[in-house]
Amino acid sequence: MTDFAATRDAFHLPDGLTYLDGNSLGPMPRHAADRVAAMMRDEWAGMLISGWNRAGWYVQPRKVGDRIARLIGAGEGQVIMGDTLSIKVFQAVSAALRMRPDRRVILSDSGNFPSDLYVAQGLAETVGAELRVVAPEEVAAHITPDLAVLMLTEVDYRTGRRHDMAALTAAAHEAGALTVWDLAHSAGAVDVDLLGAGADFAVGCTYKYLNGGPGAPAFIWVHPDHAETVRPCLQGWMGHAQPFAFDQGYAPAPGIERMRVGTPPVIALAALDAALDVWEGVDMATLRARSIELSEAFIAGVEAACPELVLHSPRDPAQRGSQVGFRHPQAYAVMQALIAQGVVGDFRAPDVLRFGFAPLYNDMEDVARAVEVLAGVLRQGLWDRPEHHRRAAVT
Amino acid sequence: MTDFAATRDAFHLPDGLTYLDGNSLGPMPRHAADRVAAMMRDEWAGMLISGWNRAGWYVQPRKVGDRIARLIGAGEGQVIMGDTLSIKVFQAVSAALRMRPDRRVILSDSGNFPSDLYVAQGLAETVGAELRVVAPEEVAAHITPDLAVLMLTEVDYRTGRRHDMAALTAAAHEAGALTVWDLAHSAGAVDVDLLGAGADFAVGCTYKYLNGGPGAPAFIWVHPDHAETVRPCLQGWMGHAQPFAFDQGYAPAPGIERMRVGTPPVIALAALDAALDVWEGVDMATLRARSIELSEAFIAGVEAACPELVLHSPRDPAQRGSQVGFRHPQAYAVMQALIAQGVVGDFRAPDVLRFGFAPLYNDMEDVARAVEVLAGVLRQGLWDRPEHHRRAAVT
Which residues bind pyridoxal 5'-phosphate (chains A, B) (predicted)? Predict the structure, then answer.
């Protein structure tokens, strides 16, 4: 059994704060600062250039990738770290397009994170492809035989709605298309099974439920059936078969290593590696059950105490990720008032209050306090104060 | 006047080590570890998601870029940080290609860093362009009216040969082409003058002479004449005009901000920002003079003491960056023997010993010791031992 009291204790959580925004930025694992300090002192300062071999910096993107693989239903040697999620989306979709040279259509949905759509749009304009965007519930009906790539984020960043990865992947394959799954709101949040679903590509970030720190490196996974033949469009030297031969021509490295691009972010990978220690021994089915327990209790509590809020997430927990959205016409001001009272969620335009439940450290006390404070803010109209209406650049 | 004794003292340099590999990985500034520890504790752990505004993470890529701008002859608000150099090369070349839709030729040279060539090759295959690679000394003769982009690394990673940025840029413009300059071995090493040369795009890494740490973020500069019209191919949400409006369609942010892609690497940027403190007040002309003084003394010393070595760099310091290469048939083993004696340079295939001179911390004592040890290794044949012939993955 996973000991959630122990995993909660592994994080630095400021006193008095109820943090329900781990789906935006996870908190710092207590030992991450020491790990990074040691890396800087013993490896960068102490080993200098020899750290690439002696400290294993060169192989770190693969080793860290292996630790994430277990959490997303992938195998060893199938996941590699680097860059940002937007870059990994570009890399996956461009590689998939090259595998279907006679097709030019990328299908996505309006619940996808905007950056994924921007990336696909930029790619489509560059290579002469077409990006089609439909409503999330209409995706299945739009999987047509002209489709090259189905590009979806499994869990909607606003509503928490979870796509059926296996069913949509099967339908895409039936139509001769490939799938790219963005796991930004899935990795570390739900029980992802990439190999079981037969997905083709998956990408994700590590600063949300995986707690790697602000701007932590992204990951990419390629199904082993494609890994030895896929040809990346972003061809960097770290993905070369022999990076240190300094050949002038590109030759892809074996397997997933070819999806590396430039020099890996060594300091950031040290922080992420420390964060992944907390995941050791965590059973993903237990995690999923805990996530559902927390979000179900939150929905029930809010609906009982805050009749003016409208649930913006699927009611069926099987169709949700690990977050819950509620709508309110003054959602921005309500969230500011909540934050002022020490309950941190997120506002997402135009009118969504978003609450993430990270089973590693959120517990039923967090749920109870969030419900209580939210009900109080609404009952007393605390949101309707000038200081809560300022609009800043928030994430 | 720049006080090089003070800047040297700002770095952690292991006792007894003569480090001439700052052109591969710069050493750690002493205060960088504290800065990163404070950032993790006070910002990530202490502020959580609010760090994006309260700690200024969101604007950090621009603020750090401004600090680098001064070192490369660019203006404020013209440089932005993020990703890796390979990604920034892709971004610059793809953007330049879009500005010349009726032309499809990218010209580069065989002295360019292989990753730049791989990236251009991948891009060319993806968009249907042609990459032409000629010898460095033949670049000028190959600037023809069909050229879309001239993509060069200013300072050759093996020989240290420095291109004439102003002259080649003028020739490219005369032919109607745009220029992309890779400053990997220039930024912090020589007196770059991007605005004076009239360059169009420039990119660079920050883990070499700028000492940002292993895998530190890259930078990109776009000439202000293009910055408001250039259309990036890598369209990420951080480069959107209104990232937090979560529009479905991409609209580029004003100016250089549009060259941002995904979430910035906050921890790595803290280390880099600390490293840039050491550059405060450093005069680039003084730095360049110091670099020439060091490399001239090294060449003279080596040629006097090691007749079997062949200079692999231009003899005229005006045509060199801040590194010197010498050839030896057993260069790999020679470098291993040098490292065993505490003199750290670099081997570059097939037969080059590479020594970088970082004026911020290298001094004439380093030069004298390197010459002495190198001469001893060669005179006594110390390189010809089995342990120096193992070939590992080095960078």
Answer: 85-86, 113-116, 153, 182, 185, 207, 237, 263
